[in-house]
Amino acid sequence: MRQKHPQESLGSLCELFGVTRQAYYDAAEHEKKTPIAHMLVLSYVREYRNNIPLIGTRKLLFLLMPDLEQHGIKIGRDQLFELLRFHGLLIRRRRRRTVKTTDSHHWLKKYPNLIKGLEVTGANQLWVSDITYIRTLEGFSYLSLITDAFSRKIVGYDLYHTLEAVGCVNALKMAIAGLKRDSPYFLIHHIF
Q1: Which residue segment(s) compose the domain that 142 sits in?
Q2: Is-contact 44 64, C-beta < 8 A?
Q3: Whole-prediction pTM value?
Q4: In which region does residue 182 sit, left (phi positive, over 0), alpha (psi from -120 to 50) or beta (all else)?
Q5: What is the pLDDT of residue 153?
Q6: Is residue 183 one of the residues assigned to a domain?
Q7: Beta-carbon count within 10 A of 67 CB
Q8: Which distant-in-sequence residues (6+ apart) come within 8 Å of 23 by Cβ?
């Protein structure tokens, strides 16, 4: 603006825009320093990314702070995100691949939930079963669990390398072996 109106004083131009002369000089100085500061920040980022390729921006900022403070550069989290985004240096988040364990949209018969609304008043009235997938170095293992619904105690379990019924049967055998003689004769075994 000053180049377009050289006859006007700096004070009157600043007054016109509602800023002080000090703010004008600070902004001019900031504009001179910003590209140099950004180049320095980007060089540090590239250096860290060579050593730790998938380091995230927040951790990167934490590591950069001591180096930048030595040069008198202040940069915040959002400004660093914006700078890295502009230069294409943001690390894309890897989506976790989830394993779908239940398919309820099948053509097989779906049985009604008989325990819905059932009030359990003691142990060994209702057992619930479930299978949990556990990722191992060899692939997946399958943990079959049988839990007493009243006490929340695991009464039977088995870890098996396939989804064959063997794992579930072993867990059921363990649960039955743990039953006491005075247990109620009426026991519901519900499978999720």
Answers
A1: 126-191
A2: yes
A3: 0.48
A4: alpha
A5: 95
A6: yes
A7: 15
A8: 14
Task: Provide the domain count of the chain.
Answer: 2
Residue that is last in its domain, among 86, 111, 134: 86
3 within a domain of the structure (yes/no): no
Using the structure block, give the residue that is written with the tokens 């060089």.
43
Specify the 3-state DSSP secondary structure of 115: coil
Is the per-residue pLDDT at 10 higher than 80? Answer: no
| Residue 118 belongs to some domain of the structure | no
Angle between helices 57-70 and 77-86 (to 10 degrees): 100
Residue 117 lies in a domain: no
| 68 and 133 together in one domain | no
Helices (H), 71-164: 77-86
How many other β-carbons are positioned within 10 Å of the β-carbon of residue 64? 20
Angle ∠(141,147,153) on CA atoms, nearest 5? 115
Cα(174)–Cα(169) distance, integer angstroms: 9
Q: Which helix (H) or strand (E) holds 39?
A: helix 21-51
Residue 51: alpha-carbon gap to chain centroid: 24
